[in-house]
Design goal:
Layout (H helix, E strand, L loop, with lengths): L1 E9 L3 H19 L2 E6 L4 H7 L5 H8 L3 E6 L3 H4 L8 H11 L4 E7 L12 H4 L3 E7 L9 E3 L6 E3 L5 H17 L3 E6 L5 H14 L6 E6 H10 L6 E4 L1 H15 L6 E5 L4 E5 L16 H13 L3 H17 L14 H13 L4 H10 L6
Parallel strand pairs: 1-2, 1-3, 3-12, 5-10, 8-9, 8-10
Antiparallel strand pairs: 4-5, 4-11, 6-7, 11-12
This protein binds 1,4-dihydronicotinamide adenine dinucleotide, 2-OXO-4-methylpentanoic acid and magnesium ion.
1,4-dihydronicotinamide adenine dinucleotide binds next to α5.
């Protein structure tokens, strides 16, 4: 089959990790007889440098015309360290999500058996943990009215949610729970926030239409603690934009590294696939960034296109790389592979899953070289 894929590499490690995901997609295309056409587009700090705009109109057009979007990461210390900058890379990503109506961000998290013994968390706590975080992505405090007083002494960020925004998210999360272990946890701060009380009220009402799903409610501060103490209690977590952003980075510790966590951002028309991590600027160009989150995002992209076996072939290759220890330094500080070598292994394994000797040979040949 033919598909148009928009690629937004972005800033920092974004280009390095999306290049590995593209290798995996090309291996899938070869192996299964598909044809993917890629169109690259700019967003973030690189787009500001080139055009003055973090989300050029052309990027939006390319994304709208695509069957799916693969995105790396945006962000640059020169903006992070300048609180007065009026134009910022993150505005590009937020505008893209809003413009394409990508209101639902799905972040699957699971403890990989191959990594548990190296985890800072105890085996009995994380073994078997498997959850899906449903994070609202186009509302809440990231999109509220911002204000800085003229004298620079007072700042505010507004947070609002409508029943409509909560309802469309909740239905997707309940349907996911029906396909999983039939449990949904709403994470909020309903003891303090009016918006959270609206989430609770709306979700309680919607739950009546899903009697097979058990619902519970957790305040976000407690949820942050439960995530580390007893992550196996979670199946589907439904939450607002800010809380979902924070608890999913926390949950990545259960997965073994933030460099392993993929996500899908979906709405009515378009769909975008991205690692949950940022541009990790300290690693730019060093060949040490873990590309597996981007590669697993490509698997989610394929699943979205209806290519189930193809997606599974990427996931199997990732499991194999973890089993063999063909991973970057975040997962294997001693004798790691480079970003690019991990990408090579995944592509090679997709094409030759039976040929273990060849995989070993290719990888060991370049193991001592980073990049
Ligand atoms: N979706 C996006 O594009 C996001 C962009 N950002 C931006 O990224 C920049 C850096 O933000 P940070 O808070 O440092 O978050 P970050 O996610 O870029 O990095 C935080 C830490 O996570 C680890 N890490 C991240 N990606 C990794 C990978 N692929 N492999 C191995 N380890 C990895 C590293 O230890 C790193 O120090 C900022 O400009 C921020 O605004 C942050 C989060 C998401
Ligand atoms: C611009 C930020 C909201 C990006 C981020 O941290 C995320 O989406 O996880
Ligand atoms: Mg984040």
């Amino acid at each position: 089959m033919d598909f148009n894929i928009a690629i937004i590499p972005g800033d920092g490690i974004g280009p390095e990790v999306t290049a590995q995901a593209k290798k995996a997609l090309e291996a899938v295309a070869d192996e299964y007889g598909h044809h993917f056409t890629y169109t690259e587009a700019m967003m973030g700090a690189c787009a500001i440098d080139a055009t003055g705009n973090p989300l050029p109109e052309e990027t939006l057009d390319i994304c709208e015309a695509s069957d799916a979007i693969l995105f790396g990461a945006i962000g640059d210390p020169k903006y992070d360290n300048d609180p007065t900058a009026k134009v910022r890379p993150e505005q590009g990503l937020l505008r893209l999500r809003k413009s394409l109506g990508l209101f639902c961000n799905v972040r699957p998290v699971k403890a990989y058996e191959q990594l548990i013994d190296n985890s800072p968390l105890k085996r009995e706590i994380i073994s078997g943990a498997d959850m899906s975080i449903y994070r609202e992505l186009t509302g809440g405090i990231y999109f509220g009215e911002k204000h800085l007083s003229d004298d620079g002494q007072v700042a505010s960020d507004g947070c609002s949610y409508s029943v409509k925004e909560i309802t469309r998210m909740a239905h997707l999360a309940f349907k996911e729970a029906q396909n999983r272990r039939k449990k949904l946890t709403l994470v909020d701060k309903a003891n303090v926030l009016e918006t959270s009380r609206l989430w609770r009220k709306t979700v309680t009402e919607i739950a009546k239409g899903y009697p097979d799903v058990a619902v519970d409610f957790l305040f976000v501060d407690n949820a942050a603690m439960q995530m580390i103490l007893n992550p196996k209690q979670f199946d589907v977590i439904l939450t607002e934009n800010l809380f979902g952003d924070i608890i999913s980075d926390e949950a990545s510790v259960i997965g073994g590294s933030i460099g392993l966590l993929a996500s899908a951002s979906v709405g009515t028309e378009n769909a975008l696939f991205e690692p949950i991590h940022g541009s990790y600027p300290q690693a730019t160009g060093k060949g040490i960034a873990n590309p597996l989150a981007s590669i697993l995002s490509a698997a989610m992209l394929l699943r979205h296109l209806g290519l189930q076996d193809e997606a599974a072939s990427i996931e199997t290759a990732v499991e194999k790389s973890l089993e063999l220890g063909f991973t970057t330094e975040d997962l294997k500080p001693e004798n790691p592979l480079s970003t690019s070598k991990v990408g090579d292994f995944i592509a090679d394994y997709i094409l030759n899953p039976e040929d273990t000797n060849r995989n070993f040979k290719n990888i060991h040949a370049g193991q001592s070289t980073i990049i």
